[in-house]
Amino acid sequence: MPSASATEMELWDSGELAQNGSWSHTFTMASNDMYSCTPHPPHEGFPDFTGWVNVSDDSDAGADDVTIYIDGFSYQPSTVKIQPGVTVTWVNNDSAIHTATQMDMSGDMHDEHTEDDGIPGFASWLAVAAITAASIVATRKER
Questions:
Q1: Which residues of 105-139 are buried (b: 16+ CB within 10 A; e: fewer)?
Q2: What is the number of other CB atoms lying within 10 angstroms of the CB of residue 90?
Q3: Nearest of 47, 103, 53, 105 to residue 78 by alpha carbon
Q4: For residue 123, which phi and psi values (nearest 5 degrees)?
């Protein structure tokens, strides 16, 4: 079973989860992490197979550990808002192998490539950018 020892500066990755396999990660600091399934990425016909873990000190963030089920080529729930210190466990209920892999949103994925380069990664970066733009969550704090 893959280790959950990744530091907060590293991208986290469940590794391959067979049917009924599970993996857990404890989120220790505020972040807004998008993740997907490596064998079934958004740019290869699985645009809805993504999820978000929002780690926040906000009062509406959950303090209890969370389980996310992989079922029907989707994460359920697909978005969770938790407090630092909460552990999230992914459980694969599908017969196919899946992962929960944090997506690199650093913007350095395809330095200097353009659409005309013919580099397949550029199209996938555009797909991620489109998903990211569509998944912005804004909350209003009352003072």
A1: eeeeeeeeeeeeeeeeebebbeebeebeeeeeeee
A2: 22
A3: 53
A4: -65, -40
> CA-to-CA distance for 23 and 16, rounded, in angstroms?
10
Q: Is 51 helix (H, G, I), strand (E, B) or coil?
A: strand
How far apart are the C-alpha atoms of 104 and 11, rounded to whole Å? Answer: 7
How do residues 79-99 score in pLDDT, each as one tens digit? 999 999 999 999 999 999 999
Q: For residue 128, what are its two tokens?
A: 């991620």
- DSSP-derived letter for residue 100 is -
Whether this model's pTM surpasses 0.70:
yes
**Bridge partners for 35 per DSSP:** 51, 102
Q: What is the pLDDT of residues 99-134, one digit of tens each?
A: 999 998 876 544 444 444 444 444 444 445 444 444
